[in-house]
Design a protein that fits this description.
By secondary structure, the chain is of the alpha/beta class. The chain has one domain: Rossmann fold (3-Layer(aba) Sandwich). It is built from 8 helices and 7 strands. The chain has helices at about 15-30, 40-50, 65-80, 110-135, 155-175, 195-200, 205-210, 220-230, and strands spanning about 10, 30-35, 55-60, 85-90, 140-145, 180-190, 240-245. Helix 3 runs parallel beside helix 4. It is globular. It binds nicotinamide-adenine-dinucleotide. The site of nicotinamide-adenine-dinucleotide has 31 residues, from helix 1, helix 4, strand 5 and helix 6.
Length: about 250
Amino acid sequence: MAELDGKIALVTGAGRSVGLGIAQELAQAGAAVALNDLHPERAQAALEQIESAAGGLLAAPFDVANLESVRAGIARVERELGPIDILVNNAGIPEGAGAAGPFVQSDPAQWHFNIDLNLYGSMYCIRTVLPGMAQRKWGRVIQISSGAGSRGVPNVSIYSAAKAGIEGLLRSVAIEMAQSGVTLNAIALGLMANTAERMGDSAYLQRIFSTIPMGRLGQPREIGACVVWLASEKAGYVTGQTIHINGGSVHGR
Ligand SMILES: NC(=O)c1ccc[n+]([C@@H]2O[C@H](COP(=O)([O-])OP(=O)(O)OC[C@H]3O[C@@H](n4cnc5c(N)ncnc54)[C@H](O)[C@@H]3O)[C@@H](O)[C@H]2O)c1
């Protein structure tokens, strides 16, 4: 019997990269997995890459940053797979946010992209699934955050603010829910291989790379392995925490 047999998981932003790695590990651990993404074709393509699907899979496209679409999307997942036991809030890189840069040069009209997705989007999903989890006296909320939520990282200040905000929310809600059988934790990532590939061989990337004691970048399935553990019975006494996975780095991202 696999660790998460019979459990139902929703992973947001699972169409590629970190979210796909998380979905792959959850499926391998026996969970039924709903793969959310803003882009339906991306969610479907990701689903087709998952080899181990004994628990069942569902492509579940919806916009995490829109409350009505979150409510409708989660209702569909629960109709087709069953009540959600494990929520992984992974979607966190908003489209349309514009280039990163110093706060002093930022356009206030652009700030909402990161806040809408990382803070409101995550809150919409948590608020929608939490009553059912509490009623069933079991649930896991796992938030994908960033080292930039707890350390100063130049040029990503709005993203940092949103990640710090959602980590703060989790810590408080974890206490409110501490006797309900529902745990809420965050995993804060350092620089991952998928982002580095998109950056190309830049001097900035080389600088970050040189600060990673392990001398390599993170892989999506390594994050998935930690998600599986947090979702398991074994992690039942862990709540309100942020676990950093970054090769020992002191550099956020
Ligand atoms: N990759 C890194 O180096 C890194 C570092 C630190 C933290 N993180 C965090 O890891 C998470 C995943 O990052 P990634 O690099 O895999 O991102 P990514 O951009 O490669 O993939 C994220 C997916 O989320 C989807 N998405 C975007 N907006 C959405 C929305 N409104 N609704 C539903 N889906 C949406 C995208 O379509 C995309 O397929 C994020 O929370 C990010 O902040 C990543």
